[in-house]
Specification:
Elements (H helix, E strand, L loop, with lengths): L10 E5 L3 H12 L3 E6 L8 H4 L8 H14 L3 E4 L5 H4 L6 E4 L3 E3 L12 E3 H6 L7 E5 L3 H11 L9 H8 L24 E5 L15 H11 L2 E3 L3 E6 L2 E6 L2 E5 L3 E4 L3 E3 L2 H8 L4 E3 L11 H14 L1
Parallel strand pairs: 1-2, 1-4, 2-3, 4-15, 6-13, 7-8, 7-13, 8-9
Antiparallel strand pairs: 5-14, 10-11, 11-12
Helix pairs in contact: 1-3, 1-10, 6-8
Length: 309
């Protein structure tokens, strides 16, 4: 895309410094608009700050380094640690407001969902809630796989340590056999935890992952000993663990921790208040669409809109 200079320069407020907000703010500022970027957190990144902590996704540290530099280059006025309210945005300060407030975890309607054993994925990734030795992960989408990768992994990641990568995939970088493959069985450390990855859908677990990388995620978790079950009905969570029904049989998984990875919902409260005021406002990223959350799609949407404003 060609980001052409804006014909009419505007004062734009962008609320939310996740993937969509960062893309919109930097591109709009590059085109000459005066942009102020707000976020309630103390650092930019939004969902990127969760993703970068997953073994194998360390490249997101570089993504954030890029966006920090773009904010500097294009003189975006960055205001972190500030949860803004609608009244602060309406008036003479801004000509246009963009809401990129992202998503919040969704809590499914399961009996006992507020039991002390049940924790949200965001708390597990951030390390604010402990994880026991026996774990059930509810939801086998991208986040469920990421959480299993995190809690089943120890030591260096194969994404940053070539020796670990070679060992886990049976590759010989030194002697260069045909195709690079040694023929030796890959060595993947079994997890010390007992982990169940569960989904309601009857399709194979992980079917919805990316075509080019999904098979590697399924294989690496299977090698670590993660048990993957589909067609699971969640009955309740209590002191005994997670009660499930599968193939018309009810059983109890005797887990210490139930990690909820049951999707997200858009955080639109600020957008709804602004929309009611008839103030010019746009909705982008996860706040626009939470289903199958995708940073690439959010950045693309934000980039096109910032090119037009």
């Amino acid at each position: 895309m060609n980001y052409l200079p804006a014909k009419l320069k505007k004062r734009i407020a962008v609320v939310g410094a996740g993937p969509a907000g960062l893309a919109y703010a930097t591109i709009a500022a590059e085109r000459g608009h005066q942009v102020t970027l707000f976020d309630a957190a103390e650092e930019i990144g939004g969902q990127f700050n969760l993703a970068k902590k997953i073994p194998g996704k360390e490249e997101f540290y570089e993504t954030l380094r890029y966006f920090r530099r773009m904010l500097e280059l294009h003189d975006v006025d960055l205001k972190l640690g500030q949860a803004v309210i609608a009244e602060e945005l309406i008036g003479d300060l801004f000509d246009h407001v963009v809401i990129a407030t992202g998503v919040v975890p969704r809590k499914p309607a399961i009996e006992g969902i507020n039991h002390e054993k049940a924790v949200l994925y965001i708390d597990v990734i951030n390390g604010t809630k402990p994880v026991g030795d026996k774990v059930a992960v509810i939801g086998a989408g991208g986040i469920g796989f990421d959480v299993c990768e995190l809690i089943s992994h120890s030591g260096s990641s194969g994404a940053v340590d070539r020796n670990v990568f070679a060992r886990e995939w049976g590759i010989d970088f030194d002697n260069h056999p045909r195709g690079g493959v040694t023929g030796v069985e890959p060595v993947v450390a079994k997890t010390d935890r007992e982990i169940w990855l569960l989904q309601r859908k009857v399709t194979p677990v992980g079917r919805g992952l990316g075509l080019t990388t999904g098979w590697t995620h399924r294989l690496s978790l299977a090698r670590r000993g993660v048990k993957m079950l589909n067609a699971v009905e969640y009955v309740k969570i209590d002191d005994a663990g997670l009660h499930v029904r599968r193939e018309e049989k009810t059983e109890v998984l005797p887990v210490d921790t139930v990690i909820i990875c049951a999707g997200q919902q858009s955080e639109r409260s600020l957008f709804d208040r602004l929309r009611d005021s008839d103030f010019p406002v746009e909705l982008i990223g996860g706040a626009y669409k939470a289903a199958e959350l995708d940073a690439k799609a959010a950045i693309k949407q934000a980039s096109y809109l910032a090119a037009e404003v």
